[in-house]
Amino acid sequence: MKKYGVNELRKMFLEFFESKGHLAMKSFSLVPHNDNSLLLINSGMAPLKPYFTGAEIPPRRRVTTCQKCIRTGDIENVGKTARHGTFFEMLGNFSFGDYFKREAIHWSWEFLTEVVGLDENRLYPSIYVDDDEAFEIWNKEIGIAPERIFRFGKEDNFWEHGAGPCGPCSEIYYDRGEKYGCGEPGCTVGCECDRYMEVWNNVFTQFDNDGHNNYTELKQKNIDTGMGLERLAVVVQDVDSIFDVDTIEALRNKVCEFAGITYHSDEAKDVSIRLITDHIRSATFMISDGIMPTNEGRGYVLRRLIRRAARHGRLLGIDGAFLSKLSETVIEGSKDGYPELDEKREFIFKVLSQEEEKFNKTIDQGLSILAGMENKMEEASEKILAGADAFLLYDTYGFPLDLTREILEEKGYTIDEDGFKAAMEEQRVKARTARKTTNYMGADATVYDEIDAAVTTAFVGYDHLQYDSKITVLTTEQEVVEAISDGENGTIFVEETPFYATMGGQEGDTGIIRTADAEFVVKNSIHLLGGKVGHVGTVTKGMFKVGDAVSLEVDAAKRADTCKNHSATHLLQKALKTVLGSHVEQKGSLVTPDRLRFDFAHFAPMTAEELRQTEAMVNEQIAKALNVDTQVMNIEEAKKTGAMALFGEKYADDVRVVSMGDFSKELCGGTHVSNTGVITTFKILSESGIAAGVRRIEALTGEGVFAYYRNVEAELNEAAKAVKATPANLLEKLHHLTEELKAAQSEIESLKSKMAKDALGDVMSNVVEVNGVKLLPAKLEGVDMNGLRDLGDQLKEKLGEGVIVLASVNDGKVNLMATATDEAMKKGAHAGNLIKGIAALVGGGGGGRPNMAQAGGKNPAGVEDALAKAAEVLAAQTA
């Protein structure tokens, strides 16, 4: 059997499946696209999930890939054994509802035995315990003896992940020979030793799990197979481990060369050699996909890998920074399969050098501090490092927690990890509650303060909506970086841009920034000191790095609508000066694609006629289709032409003067239509006051006006429908309804009055005299407060002079009302205080004027007591 190299095996696999009708797709980025369930791509199937779920249509129903993958679940074991690694390449062939078990099994066997040339007598398939269909294919069609086919249970040979698609697996093991075995008598497929190595795994996705382990057959059955490229190379090249296959061995040897040592001469040093070899592979590939070292998410994974490798370099005695030199070997060994490594080599070197340099500045001091902590623990006979101490190393000296853990484990110590998390959370709370940081100028400090002051941006958007330029600076939301990748929010700065940045009341442009492989959605364009324009948004595909050539494309439709609204604002200002007077001055404006807002100096609300005149004047100038001309001239020359300038605004020596026929001339740096006719139409929505002497108009133009009238028309039709009319006779119908309503309300009031009288009955017999003042207390049912007041007025006429107290129970609630005549008040009666004195008995409160007061309550049972107490309170008032 020929000992093929890693790059040869990759090529052979992809070409074999292309010959079987598969589309060979290039490896997806390590950064998951629209998948929040993963931090990093960890399998060949992971980036293809949308095809398996049906969320996206695959480019072909048969696909093959060699996918770069990273798994960090057992990062602590990397180096300690030759089995573990964080980076690997996964070969895969996939079927989306096309072929199934028969073809998948036959092709895996054909590739391994006929293409690669493995001895079929050393290959052993395994199947799921109940998968008789797979057994028949292996036994009857491939010709494997039953005793060589191993049945394993759910734990080993059934792939599922909670609810959803799942299915049995069929793996293929290779017997590497006794020299790799454990020597035990029962050693066979499934043994934990290194003799029988799994090289291929066919997953037959044929069931759907409802989440309660109830399985139904899928209509569309899929194939998801995976084979680790490095593992296959281990078998083909007949070497001990992945660290001994050709490309990785070259890297391992380079580590030894840098350290001046040989592999397998010292087990402790071998741990460091393997760890550096693995970690530099992961770091190189991660950086090539735009992942940057940070303190969170996938960026933190990268930082941990780089810093662990740097620390182990010191343990091996490697002087100075070495990781960028080492990544050169990674690139040379893998660029055949991943040409992007070669394209981005300088960028990869720069990121590695910067991160290693940053860590080197603090590592010695940090190690010294840690040594002091170890001494204190030894003196106190303690074995656990306090969480606060571990956090100090993390926060001040850049030691990832697992790096501190690893160093301590070498000496038999552990860490209080709960204490570390508590210290971390305490710092986060402090950061959230702390006063906003400000810069030297007193403004809120932002990531943009870190950008070189010499960086600037030329605006080319007056003449272009699409433009090619080069990236000068990139930032995330926290720091200036060399790259940003899929899913990250950030800001892109370029040398020239067609994007107008928010300024002068005009909202910034939105749009797209692209390279051949990447896309960034611009959600806002901001203007910063020094003429910088920041394009704020999100990477939706691929990665961007400093120095990249990019194509910038403004959203043309939104820009066009913004231009209409901005030009209309100029027409509006001149119309206001004409209608209201020359005292009108602009006090502010907002121009967006959807609407315009104009604030101006004026000292009274505009009349309906003034608004009509203003709107008509603007529409008249639109209908005239005036040419809009822009000239750049000296500020003094511009003022002599009569161009309007903003009061108190500071202008550069040269300014842009925007003229609309002979009607309007203003100094303005914004974007405009070429002819007022493009605006189409103008509609004022509202006029209001926002401050003393400042008014605000909100208005629409073009399609916004038509949309507004469509909405008005829809509401008019709905209103007409509601009253069984048509828009044409709606007004007449409303007049009729209003008259009917008035008549009905009058009739209701008459009926309520009659009902109140009927409820009152003959109450004059209730009159008592209290200190020479007549008091009439009465209880009623179902009369509201208005009814009580009307009855009070009627009873005063019957009573003459005196005090009337009425209580009514209505739907379980109590209304109290008291009224006093002038003579009664002269004798001391006070209706408000009387109500205060009795309201508590009905569970309420209230009061009012001396002549009339009312109250509400929630306790109908207290009405009799309240009316009885009225005499007592009145007696006290008139004593």
Q: In what range is the share of β-strand residues? A: 25-35%
Number of strands: 35
Rg measurement, Å: 42 Å
- Provide the structure class: alpha+beta
Mean pLDDT, rounded to whole units?
90
Give the overall form. Answer: extended
Describe the largest sheet: 9 strands, mixed
Strand and helix layout:
Elements: H1 6-18, E1 23-25, H2 49-53, E2 62-70, E3 87-96, H3 101-115, E4 123-128, H4 132-142, E5 150-152, H5 154-157, E6 158-159, E7 164-175, E8 196-209, E9 215-228, H6 229-237, H7 246-259, H8 267-288, H9 297-315, H10 323-334, H11 339-343, H12 345-379, E10 384-385, H13 387-397, H14 401-409, E11 414-415, H15 417-433, E12 458-459, E13 466-475, E14 480-481, E15 483-485, E16 489-494, E17 496-497, E18 511-514, E19 519-528, E20 532-541, E21 543-545, E22 549-554, H16 556-580, E23 586-591, E24 596-601, H17 608-623, E25 628-634, H18 635-640, E26 654-660, E27 664-667, E28 682-691, E29 694-701, H19 702-722, H20 730-760, E30 768-770, E31 773-781, H21 785-799, E32 803-810, E33 813-820, H22 822-826, H23 831-839, E34 845-848, E35 852-857, H24 863-878
Parallel strand pairs: 1-2, 4-5, 10-11, 12-17, 31-32
Antiparallel strand pairs: 2-3, 3-9, 4-7, 6-7, 7-8, 8-9, 13-14, 13-16, 13-22, 15-21, 16-20, 18-19, 18-22, 19-20, 23-24, 24-29, 25-26, 26-27, 28-29, 30-31, 32-33, 33-35, 34-35
Helix pairs in contact: 3-4, 7-8, 7-10, 8-9, 8-12, 9-12, 10-12, 12-13, 13-15, 16-17, 20-21, 23-24
